[in-house]
Design goal:
The complex is a heterodimer of chains A (161) and B (108).
Chain A lengths: L1 H17 L2 H12 L10 H9 L4 E2 L3 E4 L3 E2 L5 E7 L9 E8 L6 E6 L8 E6 L5 E9 L4 E10 L9
Parallel strand pairs in A: 1-9, 3-9
Antiparallel strand pairs in A: 2-4, 4-7, 5-6, 5-8, 8-9
Helix pairs in contact in A: 1-2
Chain B lengths: L4 E5 L8 E10 L20 E8 L2 E8 L8 E8 L3 E9 L4 E8 L3
Antiparallel strand pairs in B: 1-2, 2-5, 3-4, 3-6, 6-7
The chains are: A alpha+beta (161), B mainly beta (108).
């Protein structure tokens, strides 16, 4: 178990250095453990189940997270949406989407005018370097988003032993 | 079965109409179902599926986390405090274990 983990980490480090982390790192983590990880989704694949054809614009949302996360098991992320949060115009949902995790949909937050401010923070798990998308649904039915690449040096999906 | 423990925090002095930051921390393993224990046995998934926060009668936040949320989930959000009311956080995990936290939010 340990040897495998070590080999994987070494392999990952080497690949990162070689500047070709995407494909090979993906294959590695999928091989190392029986899980559907390592496959990088496209942006469209990530947002499609939620957006479903509605208007989607990259504005008003600010996703804040470390550019380099040393531990993928605990990555603090903050989402701020510029919205007056009135009964007429507010944010109804904030989705956190992962490009590489076995479960793309990390969490959804339901907000409303009673929040006063469309801002949430949490701590997520990331299975390796990937893009994270914060998707906000407005009361008008439109969507706003922000995306950010987070470099993860140790994936959340390594064996605990 | 371990008892779920949680903690919620907000500013000490809250005036009516203030938008306050609420910080909620729940003690929970959030087992992903992908990791193995020390004997190499797969630990079954056990994550919080739903968290509902209410202030008085008003639902103020609903979160549906997945295995993508870290161990001991932490949530920070805002709410408008108009009057003294009871804040209540209620969550349920994959095993059906339910946790509740109540605390009075005092408005001066």
């Amino acid at each position: 178990m340990n040897r495998r983990g070590y080999a994987r980490r070494r392999g990952l480090a080497g690949l990162l250095l070689s500047g070709l982390p995407w494909v090979a790192a993906g294959l590695r983590s999928a091989h190392g453990q029986q899980m559907n990880s390592g496959h990088l989704l496209t942006f469209e694949e990530m947002v499609k189940p939620w957006v479903a054809g509605a208007r989607l614009v990259k504005m008003d949302v600010t996703l804040t997270a470390p550019i380099l996360a040393e531990n993928g098991s605990l990555v603090p992320v903050q989402v701020q949406v510029r919205s007056p949060m009135t009964t007429q115009d507010h944010v109804t949902h904030v989705h956190l989407l992962s490009q590489r995790n076995p479960v793309t949909h990390m969490a959804v937050f339901q907000l409303g005018p009673w929040n006063g401010r469309a801002e949430i923070s949490t701590r997520v798990r990331l299975a390796g370097t990937q893009d994270v998308v914060a998707l906000a649904r407005l009361s008008s039915g439109e969507f706003r988003y922000d995306r950010m690449e987070i470099i993860v040096t140790e994936s959340a999906c390594v064996d605990a032993s | 079965m371990t008892m779920a423990i949680a903690r919620v925090q907000w500013p000490d002095r809250i005036s009516a109409g203030d938008v306050v930051k609420v910080r909620l921390l729940i003690q929970h393993p959030m087992d992903t179902g992908y990791l193995q224990d020390l004997n190499g046995k797969l630990v079954p998934r056990n994550v919080i599926r739903q968290l509902i926060c209410t202030l008085g009668q008003q639902e103020v936040l609903r979160v549906e986390p997945s295995s993508g949320i870290a161990t001991n989930p932490y949530f920070e959000f805002y709410l408008r405090a108009d009057q003294t009311a009871e804040f209540r956080a209620e969550w349920r995990d994959d095993r059906g274990l339910q946790g509740v936290l109540t605390q009075t939010l005092n408005v001066i």
